[in-house]
Amino acid sequence: MSQALEDKNTFESDLDRQIANSPKDIPGWGIDANPENDPAYPMKHRNGADYERLNYTRPPQQPVTVEILHSIERPNVTAVFGDTLPPKGVSGAIRRYAFKHSESTYMHWVPLVLADRINVVEGIIDDIKNGHFPNLIGERGWAAEWKYNKAGLIKNVAIGAAITYGIIMLIRNRRKVAAED
Amino acid sequence: MIAMNFRGPFRVRVDRNKPMPEILHPGDAIIQVTRSCICGSDLHLYHGLVPDTRVGMTFGHEFTGVVVEVGSGVQKLKVGDHVLVPFNIACGSCPFCKQELYGNCHESNPQSTAVGGIFGYSHTAGGYDGGQAEYVRVPYADISPTVIPAGMDLDDAVMLTDVVPTGYQAAEMGGIQMGDTVVVFGAGPVGIMAARCAWLFGAGRVIIIDHIDYRLEFARNYAYCEAYNFKDMHDPVVFLKKETGGLGADVCIDAVGCDAAGNLFQSLVGRKMPLTGGSATALHWAINSAKKSGIISIVGVYGPLDSLVPIGNVVNKGLTLRANQASVKRLLPKLIDHVMAGRLNPKGLITHRIPLEEVAEGYHIFSAKRDNCIKPVLIPSSAYAA
Fold first, then answer.
1. Cβ–Cβ of A143/B330 closer than 8 Å?
2. Mind listing the pLDDT tens digit for each residue in A48-90?
3. Spatial CB neighbours of B153, under 8 Å, sequence gap ≥ 6
4. Which of B85, B87, B86 is nearest to B64 (CA)?
5. CA nearest neighbour of A117 among A137, A138, A140, A89
6. Is the CB of A148 less than 8 angstroms away from the CB of B365?
7. CB proximity list for B31: less than 8 A, separation 6 or greater
8. Contact at CB, B110 and A78, closer than 8 angstroms
């Protein structure tokens, strides 16, 4: 779709229904229509409300008191929304960038995944700033692992320790060789 | 108040100083939580597979509680009502809610047009804090929250917020005809409930497929179905073709979603990296195991990115794909009747009752499938006084 055509789209909600009135002059129009042939059945109890498009009576609007990012595939924020955790920091900047692209593009979702990972680091920094050093073992629920899978936990910790020891020794040896050269 | 606090993939903790939720809209209510489940789909968040899951969020979309405050526009609920709260946040007035598609509300999620608002399910589902807390804000309180019927066990009630309706709708969307063979992929709580509900629609044979033996044993006893471990098979699709007279199953249900095991490539690109909308192994098998003209019912949760499924086989076999988030409010009257009449026993799925304060252990037990866990329920200590 050209940029000009996208710009023209202003969410004029009744536009496509106006267009749909004209084919009635075509011979045979609607002759084989079957309202019961609805792929969304049984979830959907068809009553034609789809054709209101965006002309339905909206619920009262929740006041927007924090930054709420909204999909560019809709004209506005919804009547209610979660106001938790507005975007902030580096991850927030990336999220703002993501929401400039539609849900149909990787440029929306991949930056959001990246922002999530950066947000984890921001969370740890925030914790430390607030005098709380994260208990990574507790947060991972390893008390339960100790209780229900003691042997497996010991094995995993031993493997992890061996790999870490191996990497340290490898680095040391390389440094030693480099120093001798 | 006390609340679950997400800190990153595989890391959650108890936050003891989370601010109390407030009324932000005339249709809001504040609920004091009495039961809150950890859902299999919460594990997708916990594993870091759902984009825009922000650090600090409180999860939980399956909960019951007592109304402690209502907004000026709330007319049906009153303070003191003990309610079950469907996981869908639904306005009741958009075109989709008017047609009972309460899982597709257009006025509850600004961040994504593809999904309605869901409690505690990332900002991709509206950015609402969830019910794994002592208190929670419930928007549109007059629409979906339902007063728990007198005589109903609280553990049954909390299962009616998601597990039972999602399992039931999975079977309903299968369009099961009398005598049909139904294959359910995934022996988690929803898959087991889907298998149990398939009988309500007249299935002639119900088969469940998973790779965890204790879950298969549980499903066999709870849902009266055949249960097979795909690790014992060379190829589950060939196994199911042989089991169904060579043609394939009439109905296949995907009750796994993006965390599916069983295919190394899918697991790598869908779970470990992740470059797709998740590991679509169960859906892949469902499509290939169904008979020509069969129906695939999908209730497993996938991420919004593309997923690797054999769509060519859908065309060539003439399959019908039906999928949606469960429309809980639509199904509640019928399901309450089934529970009260004893036809369904939702609380029978609950294996672990865990204090909210031990939420990190709860998530680990469920995620790592320890202690034969099928369904964990979190109980805030304050709930005993509610």
1. no
2. 888 888 889 999 999 999 999 999 999 999 999 999 999 999 9
3. B347
4. B85
5. A89
6. yes
7. B63, B65, B66, B67, B68, B83, B85, B131, B135, B136, B138, B145
8. yes
Cβ contacts of B3 within 8 Å, gap of 6 or more: B14, B15, B18, B58, B129, B132, B133, B134
| Mutation choice for A interface testing from B7, B22, B357 by most A CBs within 10 A | B7
Q: Is the peptide bond before A42 cis (omega within 30 degrees of 0)?
A: yes
Strands B352-355 and B11-15: unpaired
Q: Note the residue count of chain B.
A: 386
Mean pLDDT value across residues B172-184: 95
Q: Any idea what DSSP says for residue B184?
A: E
The residue of chain A nearest to residue B364, with distances taken between CA atoms, is A141
Number of residues written out for chain A:
181
* pTM of the predicted model as reported, rounded to 2 decimal places: 0.93
C-beta separation of B158 from B38 below 8 A:
no
| Cα A46 to chain centroid, rounded | 30
Is B56 in contact with A84 (Cβ distance < 8 A)? yes
What does B308-346 look like in DSSP terms, one character per residue? ---HHHHHHHT-EEEE----HHHHHHHHHHHHHTTS--G
Q: Does B363 touch chain A (CB under 8 A)?
A: yes
Are β-strands B82-85 and B146-147 bridged in parallel, bridged antiparallel, or unpaired?
Answer: antiparallel
- Report ipTM (2 d.p.): 0.91
As a whole number of Å, the end-to-end CA separation of chain B is 14
